[in-house]
Amino acid sequence: MNLPNERLALRGAAFLLIIGLLTPSAVSALTYDPSQQTSLEPGTVTSPANGSTLVSVQGYTFQGNTNPKKPARLVSVDERGSLQWTYDDSDNGNAWFFDVDPLPNGNLLVSSPRGTDTVVFELDPDTRERVWERRFDMEDTHDVDAFGEDELLIANMREWNDSAGVSEDRIVVYNRTTDEITWEWYFKNHFPADTDGGYNADWSHVNDVDYIGDGRLLLSPRNFDQAIVVDMESKEIVERLGTDDDYEVLNEQHNPDWLVSENGTPTMLAADSGNNRVVEYAKEDGEWVRTWSVGSNTLSWPRDADRLPNGNTLVVDTLNHRVIEITPTGEVVWEYYATWGPYDAERVAHGDESSGPTIRDLNASGSYPITGSANLTAGGNESVGFAARAESTFAGTPLEEPMSGLSTRLSHVLPWLRPVWMTPWDLFSAACAVGVGLTATGGELYLMRRRLLDTFRELFEW
């Protein structure tokens, strides 16, 4: 046996395998077109929208620096997907954009975190000038809603009391005229301290608060996997959809909406982000029953869903970097790509929340795939996403369950970290190349262990 020749052959094979695994990433890097990846463009438009569509694009900011390849901005688009205007607020420092709401006077209410603060302002869409603004000592606030003439409803997440080791996450009503908080509600008073693994700096991650009438608020504590209704007078939770870690119902949801069917049935529509779908639930005999599900294995981390008066649903498909209007059976009739990471979308003519019928009123209950997308590459969109492909690859094997959870989690986290030119499969191949390299290096070190030990002894013996 000629051991050195065999080792040389193994080294060569490992080298070629590593080169092969890294080739997709190299090709993607060389063919990357920055203008395409930060583009704003229409996809499928078979049915023109009713007026303008407003999109808030989160972008990516890390330690106060915005990645120019992952820009944050507000975008206004016309009926057929032509760009009307953009607003990036670059003159006022690095910003993220989350909730944006049309106001009755035609202006926009915008929530825009800056570092550890959040700036809330009213924007004139015609002049792109601010009418007023307030800066709050509140970190990463996702949702602020107008509440009456001069008050704001604020979802105050990440309110961490470091000295006490307690989360102070809360909902507040703030009066702009008196500059005072006039009402507040704390999650710690209504949830066990061990919820979601216990208090931490991002405990509830409450991403939405809506006033739904009759003195009630609809809240979305994302990390608790549930949507709740709170009575403002008693401060009691009077409705609850989902429970912590029960991912069959909701999994880190965003922006739930409250609907009522023609026969008075309470209904919730939600972007079920962690499950890559949009769902609707109706309350029957005291229990919440799922009546509609759309987009599993196609959507990627959806974060907003609004029912339109025509019965269609406007969906923000965040990590496919698009906004789509779909029919009750999942057909795309209007689509717009807006990198990087859209968060909220509003059909301006219809206000800031759902204004259409329930799925049951439309006689369209069921589970549907999404069809008819243009499948453009602006956000790396695939007809079947990375998580779904990985899940199908390991289906029927002992690795099915752990790989399903891992691939879904990675598909939601890695896009924020990987280079914009690298697809999920490029990243997977690169990770495999690193694994092969580490294994080959480990093997070499093992085979050379005696020589290395002898050298070590010679260097350090007295």
From TrEMBL:
Name of the protein this chain belongs to: Aryl-sulfate sulfotransferase
PANTHER family: ASST-DOMAIN-CONTAINING PROTEIN, PQQ ENZYME REPEAT PROTEIN-RELATED
Species whose genome carries this gene: Haloferax chudinovii
Annotated Gene3D superfamilies: TolB, C-terminal domain (2.120.10.30)
Pfam families assigned to the protein according to its UniProt record, in alphabetical order: Arylsulfotrans
